[in-house]
């Protein structure tokens, strides 16, 4: 054994010992943090404070600070994910968060729920968006996760329509980078694929790739990507388009990776609940406005936002349920409903509208 080999072995031993010591420090600090979380729960119960154990604004602030302190080599997103799991586990000691999401298991909505609440939350898949709203309204779960818009295919109208008849608030948002993969089962013959299953939105997001690689194959729209993954388990001539979680959950082999037409393909999800969220320091607000059907109505709606310097990030129009040829505007903007400028703009818009409902002010999505 050469001197260089001995020196290298010694360096490895020293580094591994250092890692062991760091791991012990991390474990002790996590335990200390968990103990503090339990004390917080006891203080809340003793003082009779409203038992809102999950505080969206507080968690957003913690994650932002974790990323601000990050000096690498881990990315900010990876650092935020690690802190999210620590917070999720600590919160479960106080009161596990119950979350409903648009299922079934293996969907991108489940992935969004895990990204926002962590793996220690108790999550429940539901078949349709309406059921997610109903479960939260009934108090069976504390929060729901529903998709609201995709960067390629646009807004999910069914989610917006549910807000017209609901008193729920938006408590948060999640933006998820969407990667679609073509996957097959262990009985599939790749050269004999005659149909490809996926959700209609996913098929649309992969249209150009499919035209180029499988132009003559039948494209079958199903209720979800997870449903598509389940269907191919017993079909030798079928494939599915879905995400990593579905491939892992249903034991499928990825034949082609990242087949979405746009590499920046993302979907935004909303966290719905019953609480009003205080300011976090970096917030968004969503509202629903009905205007009188008269000339200049749209100008009158938008003018106060311009005058008070409120940055609108999205304006969508949906047919009103109160009559033909009347419309409801869904508006997102930067800022909290209680901040100066925003509050004044909302008052002026409300004075000129036939109806205005603030759907919620909530922390801007963290990565």
Describe this protein's structure.
The protein has 367 residues and is of the alpha/beta class. The protein folds into 4 domains: 3-91, Chorismate mutase (Chorismate Mutase Domain, subunit A); 98-178, Periplasmic binding protein-like II (D-Maltodextrin-Binding Protein, domain 2, 3-Layer(aba) Sandwich); 181-256, 3-Layer(aba) Sandwich (D-Maltodextrin-Binding Protein, domain 2), CATH 3.40.190; 277-363, Alpha-Beta Plaits. 42% of the residues lie in helices and 25% in strands. The protein contains 12 helices and 15 strands. Strands 1, 2, 3, 4, 5 and 11 form a 6-stranded mixed β-sheet that branches. Helix 2 (56-69) runs antiparallel to helix 3. The radius of gyration is 24 Å and the shape is globular. It starts with a helix and ends with a strand. The mean pLDDT is 91. Keywords: Amino-acid biosynthesis, Aromatic amino acid biosynthesis, Cytoplasm, Isomerase, Lyase, Multifunctional enzyme, Phenylalanine biosynthesis. Pathway: Amino-acid biosynthesis; L-phenylalanine biosynthesis; phenylpyruvate from prephenate: step 1/1; Metabolic intermediate biosynthesis; prephenate biosynthesis; prephenate from chorismate: step 1/1.
């Amino acid at each position: 054994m050469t001197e260089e080999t001995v020196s290298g072995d010694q360096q490895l031993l020293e580094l591994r010992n250092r890692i062991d010591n760091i791991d012990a420090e991390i474990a002790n600090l996590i335990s200390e943090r968990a103990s503090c979380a339990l004390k917080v729960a006891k203080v809340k119960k003793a003082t009779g404070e409203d038992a809102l154990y999950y505080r969206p604004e507080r968690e957003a602030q913690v994650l932002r600070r974790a990323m601000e302190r990050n000096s690498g080599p881990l990315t900010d997103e990876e650092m935020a994910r690690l802190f999210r799991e620590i917070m999720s586990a600590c919160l479960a000691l106080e009161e596990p968060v119950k979350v409903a999401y648009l299922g079934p298991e293996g969907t991108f909505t489940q992935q969004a729920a895990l990204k926002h609440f962590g793996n220690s939350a108790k999550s429940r898949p539901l078949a349709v968006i309406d059921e997610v709203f109903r479960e939260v309204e009934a108090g069976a779960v504390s929060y729901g996760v529903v998709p609201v818009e995709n960067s390629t295919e646009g807004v999910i109208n069914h989610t917006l329509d549910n807000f017209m008849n609901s008193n729920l608030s938006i408590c948060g948002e999640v933006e998820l980078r969407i990667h679609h993969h073509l996957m097959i089962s262990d009985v599939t013959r790749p050269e004999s694929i005659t149909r490809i299953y996926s959700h209609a939105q996913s098929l649309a997001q992969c249209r150009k790739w499919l035209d180029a690689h499988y132009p003559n194959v039948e494209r079958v729209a199903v209720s979800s990507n997870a449903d598509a993954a389940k269907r191919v388990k017993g079909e030798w001539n079928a494939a599915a388009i879905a995400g990593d979680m579905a491939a892992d959950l249903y034991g499928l082999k990825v034949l082609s990776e990242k087949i979405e037409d746009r590499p920046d393909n993302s979907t935004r999800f909303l966290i719905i609940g019953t609480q009003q969220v205080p300011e976090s320091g970096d917030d968004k607000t969503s509202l629903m406005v009905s205007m009188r059907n008269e000339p200049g109505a749209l100008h009158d709606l938008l003018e106060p936002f311009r005058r008070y310097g409120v940055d609108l990030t999205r304006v969508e129009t949906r047919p009103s349920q109160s009559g033909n040829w009347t419309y409801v505007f869904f508006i997102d903007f930067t800022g909290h409903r209680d901040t100066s400028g925003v509050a004044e703009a909302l008052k002026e818009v409300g004075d000129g509208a036939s109806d205005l409902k603030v759907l919620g002010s909530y922390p801007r999505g963290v990565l």
